Every structure is written in structure tokens, then in C-alpha cells.
Amino acid sequence: MLQHIRKQLLFIALLGLPGISALQAQQSYQMKPIAIQSRWAKEVSPQNALPAYPRPQLERKNWENLNGLWEYAITAANAAIPATFDGQILVPFPLESGLSGVKRSLLPDQRLWYRRTIQMKPAAGERTLLHFGAVDWQTTVYLNGKEVGTHTGGYTAFTIDITAAAKTGENILVLKVYDPSDKGIGPHGKQVLNPADIYYTPSSGIWQTVWLEQVPRDYIAGLLLTPDIDKSLLDITVNAPAGYTVTATALKNGAVAGQVKGKSGVPLQLKISHPELWTPGHPALYDLSVQLLKGNTTVDEVKSYFGMRKISVAKDEKGVDRIFLNNKPYFNLGTLDQGFWPDGLYTAPTDEALAFDIKAIKAMGFNTIRKHIKIEPARWYYWADKLGILVWQDMVSPNHGLPEGAKAAFEAQCKETLAQLHNHPSITTWVLFNEKWGQFDQQRLTEWIKHTDPSRLVNGHSGEYLYVNEKLRSPSPNAYISADLTDVHSYPNPRNAIQQPGKARVLGEFGGIGVFIPHHQWNATSAWGYILEKPAALKYKYTIMNQHLQLLQRQGLSASIYTQPFDVEGEQNGLMTYDREVVKIPFTEIRKIHAPLNPDMGNMPAIAIQDADLTDPAAVYSARLQEYIDGNREPEFLKQLAMMATQAGDKDGAAIASDEYFAVMKPPYSEDDLRYVMLVTASTKDTGFNIIRNNTEAIDKAMGARQAAVKMMNLIYQDDIAPAIPAGSNNPDWTAIYTTVKPYGAPGEEIFLRARTIYQLNKQDKNGFKPVAREYLDKYGEYVKQEERRKIEAFMNEE
């Protein structure tokens, strides 16, 4: 029971409400400091923030990129458009990111505002469209003081026709954004207000490209492209006003490969002679030119592309149901990609960086990416199409507690996702739910996706069966209903999914081997993984896992997804570090490991990367400790020594080095110093604890809401509460514990009430539970997760 309480307290996720303090306007852009950054961050400036055309499958010549410096402000929820703004933000990098130049948290009772001026000269008879790649979560758009549109949903693109409000000359564009992250009803993926372990920093506001486009009065609004390799044709529908003629021309290497002419809005069939099929090893793409005609006059024209490929489940020569690509069995050897960046969070620093992730995953010898509960910008899917990788696209999971409105918000986001991503040949599989996170109406929604897009596979529930350390966590009597796949998650070691008629068996997640690489960590005190290994041992552990995959493939397994390609914040179980600088198993060696299951590697992209140093980190630390003994007292050396000591588990060494470094720190402390204090402080007795206690507002401003309070509470629990909870059935002396923690003030009281509430809930002690639980919820209930609050209140209300 004590272990259970400690486990719950380890993942405290509490939200504070610090006051709003205005920032002085920034005179020039500068990236905010972060723990580590990728090589592309230094290339980012207001003049070149993601300049590439953002929508390659519906491209026009006449457009203007609005990325760059905007003004921003954070206000109370009910505030009007601000008269003055707090400073500048680099769009399209999210508010909390270093690349935004701001790196501030947005709380649920606040609103984020953007403002910029636009010079426009609208042409008579044309429309002006304002496009947003994505804004998280709920957006209201104003132009010249007039509301021109709204959008709800943090992951999909939207367009607003601003023709009526636009004027010649200077126009003032303002956005209001509401993003409660995990406290709201909308899908939020891995974003949480208090990130830890498998959950990460939020990305509020604009996080994809914003651009203007001039179009004719009647124009091509979209294309619907579905390849049919069995009939050697492309089904195409041109979304444009009725009454027009459209022509669509397919080109391969500049030569016409097929053409069709018909009516707008009507399904057409574009015949392709001798189609060149798309696979990861040979990602053949066709260019597509589409014209909207009135008589012989071209009214509008767009450029696009497509790939000829087919995905299906069929029986192999032995009668086993498997995943087929282009009518042949094709093992989907994949990895679980979260799509986070240390410098831009949800937003890659550059287009080259965006492509790098796919190149690196291919260079490892994978042929599949499971894009995990995030929708990427259109250019990511363009690179997946062009470079050649199968994509399993997750829907962004709903709020796990399913508060009122969450189901409708999830379904709306799913509908937009299916429409937005339909044309990409790389996407072969839709993944509806993950590990019962917000699961509801699974049969209805699975069948809805299959009906909406019969050209792809539907994985109705990835990890509906979940094993951790050989123990089944989630039995499901009606699993995988109406889906094309049965999907199991098994950590750390691989296993096969259950067998059901007509369904392929896949391993939706496995692995998660944690290996930390010093100096390449977001959090130097953590190396989270399902199991932990030293760098030198990773290759052999990983090889054995893949050998078992070969055995499982012979037993009917059709796909595997390894967790994961890159470290992400506190998770250090990637095959590469979070900054994309170090690969933990050399590319040539990991490709050999993967080759038996992926013979379709094709030409490997050239990747500049550093192989991991296989020296035992403890040996490196030991050498550094000897340097300290021999007299090295350089401040930067002391700082690094303390972090290495923490990683090596030498608490005494960490305290010695950090105390000496703290002695040379002078208030007011920089953000880097405060982050360092938060990393290395391991006890209430450490000097750093008092620094945290005396600088909570500055820490929360630098690192996010409630970070200082949560850190102090965990240390108070570790040092003063947990040791006082006896093993066995004896009850703790809560009066004595309270006397001990009272001097810590609010953090001491909050963690005391939390610990006592959870302890007595676990013991099912109603008499002792009710008064302390009521006090806990009355005083600190705003910081308690919804699921946990429901459990507490349900037990309180039991007779």
C-alpha cells in the first residue's frame, strides 16, 4: 500500500494560478534559453520562419507568408481586445516554446492574443483567404476590429474568407486564443499543464504557418484523390462551384501520364497507363495539374501530386491474414513518433528539420511511422510521401475523463482529420483509440471511419490489450470490434496480438528501453523508460527483441511499432536523443538488425549524426569526481558535476557540487540558474530547496505553472511524510507528521492533505477519510485531476 501511495504521489499534476505580470516589449527577437536544442534552432529568425509553401497538395503561386514577429498579450478570460500588448512572439512557434521568444505558460483562466498589421491591395472580383495551419485550441479572428471567423480544434487547418473586411493599405489582424490544454474538453494529445514522464509541455496558440492567398471569385477549394491500382486509375473530385469544367493532368517526369475532363464537384476517373506503384523503398509520385474552366478560359489552377498504392488485409499463401501493400504481404516495421522538438515543441524549427525526422527513421531501417496522437503540418506528410514511409495516423485522443462536450469535440476533430489528410499516399492506417484513453462508442466510430474512408485500414484500438512486465492491465471482452487489425501493446518485450478472423495481428507498441546520454538531455535528473539500460547494452537488448519479432512474424504478426525513435522531454527511451544529435545504435548496425523484416529499404538518406559514446556514464562521472577532489572548482564544471552525480545516483556528491555552485550564484537568478536548481535539488535539506521556496513565481514563469510547488511537495513527501508511514497495518501518526511539515507553509499543508486523503482512500477508512478529503478538496481541489477527484468524491458519497 505504501508503494501504491508513493506511486500516485510521484505523478502529482497540480495547477496553480499565478498573477499576470506584463513583459516589457522586446526590441529584437531572441530565442529563450532551453535545456538542449537542435542544430536547426540557430537558423531560425523572424525573416525565415518556415518560409516554404505550407500546403503542397493544393498549391498556388499568389500567396503571402505571414510568419514572423507578431505582438502578443496574455489577459484574463473576460478581457476585451488589449489596447497594449506584452511583447513580440515569433509565429508560428507556440507560446511555451523557446523559439517563440516568449516561453510562457497559458492557464485555463487566461486568453492569448495576437496582433499584427498586414498591407493589402484587394483586387476587384477576387477573394482574399486567410489560412491557418493549426491554432491550439479555440480561435476567434478579427480584422480591422470586425470578427471575421472562429475555429475550434487545435490540430487541423482552417480558412477564413476576409474579403468583406479587408481594405487597401494597412489592415490590423487580431486573434484571441483559448487553450486549457488537459483541463479542457478538446483533444490535447500528450500536452499537459504539468508535464512529467510520458506527458509533455503544451503548445498553445499558433503553431503552424499562417498565410494569405488571393483567389478568383470562384475557385478550387479542394481535391479528393483516391488511387485504385487494380483498375489503374485515380478517382478524383474537384471541390469547386457547380457549372464549371475541370481538367486534371497527371505527369511523370514531366511527361503526361493521363488526363481527364469533366464537371466540378463530380467524381472523375483519371486513367494512368502502366502505373508506377508507390512503396517505401520506391516512393513514386505523380505530379497533378488541375484547372477550373469557364468555356476555354482558365478561371483557377492548382498544383498537386499523388501516389498509386493500395493497402489491404488479405490471406497469404498459408491462409494467414496479413497486411498487404500493393497486393503483396508487407511487414510494417515501425516506430512510435511523438513529433515534439526541444526548441519548438509541436513545431519543427525548419522544413529541413521536419524532413530530418523521417530521413532518420528511414536511415534506421524502419518502413513505418505511427504518428502518435498528433496531427502534423501538411509538409510533414509531403515529406513522408516523397521520402517513402508508411504512416499509421492516430486520432488525437479526447480528454481521458470525457467531461461534458469532450465526445463531440473529439468527433469533430476526427472528421476534420480524415478530410484534411485523405490525399496522402503515405497514410495507410487510421488509429482511433489508444489504450482506452477516452474510449467511447468504439464500434460506431470504427465503422464510421471505415465508411468515410474505405481505402485505408482502421485500427479501432491500439493497445486495447496492454501488457506491462508480462501482466495484462486491460482485459477487453469485445476487443477490436469492426476493425481491420487486432493490436496489443507489450512492454518491454514483444508479443503477438490475439487472432480474430479477417483481421491482421499487430504489435502497436513495445520496447521503451531507457538510455540516457549525458549532455543531450532535456531533464538531466531523469532517464524514464519501461526498462533502463546502459548505452553499451542497448544494441544487444534491441537485437534480441527484433529476433523475437522474426519469430512472431512467422506466427502471424503483421506489424510492430517500437517505442520510440527520439527521446522526448522526460522520456529517454528513444533510439536517438531529443536534440537529434546522437544515435544510440549506429545506423548501419540498426539497419542490419531490421533487414530480415524490412527488405524494402531502398536508397538510404545521408544523415549527419553522432554515434553514442558507449563508456559507462558512471565511469565518466567517477573521473569528473576525481577532478573535483584534485581541486577543480570552475562554476560550469561544478554545475555539470552535480547533474552527473544525480544521474549516477550519488546524492552526496550531487549535494556537495550543487551547494558549491549555488554559492557562486547571485540573485536575481537567471532562468538557466533556476532550471538548474530545480534539476539538482534532491532533498528539503539541500540549499536549492530554499532557493525554490523563495523564487516560486520566477520558477513558474520560466518553467510553467505550479512547477515550484510540485517540486517542493514531492521533496516534502519524500523526506518527511513517506518515512513516517509505517509498513504493515499500523496507521501513521498524522498529528506528528503535520507538525513536521507545517513550517513549509502551503506546499507542506497541501501535500500532507493529499497524502492522508490517498492513504485513507486506499485503506477504505471512511471515518478518517471524509473530513480530511473534504478539507483537501475545499482548499486545493482546483489542482486535482478530474479522474482522481471523481474517485475521492465517489468514496465520500458512499453510504
TrEMBL record:
Glycoside hydrolase family 2 immunoglobulin-like beta-sandwich domain location: 245-309
Q: Does the keyword Signal apply?
A: yes
Q: Where is the Glycosyl hydrolases family 2 sugar binding domain?
A: 112-216
Q: Which GO terms describe its molecular function?
A: hydrolase activity, hydrolyzing O-glycosyl compounds
* One Pfam family it belongs to: Glyco_hydro_2_N
For this UniProt record, the keywords arranged alphabetically read as follows:
Glycosidase, Hydrolase, Signal
Quote the SUPFAM superfamilies the UniProt record gives: (Trans)glycosidases, beta-Galactosidase/glucuronidase domain, Galactose-binding domain-like
User: Where does the sequence pass through the membrane?
Assistant: none
Q: Does the keyword Membrane apply?
A: no
InterPro entries membership: Beta-gal/glucu_dom_sf (IPR036156), Galactose-bd-like_sf (IPR008979), GH (IPR017853), GH2_Domain-Containing (IPR051913), Glyco_hydro_2_cat (IPR006103), Glyco_hydro_2_N (IPR006104), Ig-like_fold (IPR013783), Ig-like_GH2 (IPR006102)
State the signal peptide span: 1-25
Q: Where is the Glycoside hydrolase family 2 catalytic domain?
A: 352-463
GO biological processes: carbohydrate metabolic process
Coiled-coil stretches, from where to where? none
Q: Which family does it belong to?
A: Belongs to the glycosyl hydrolase 2 family.
> Which protein are we looking at?
Glycoside hydrolase family 2
Organism of this sequence: Chitinophaga eiseniae
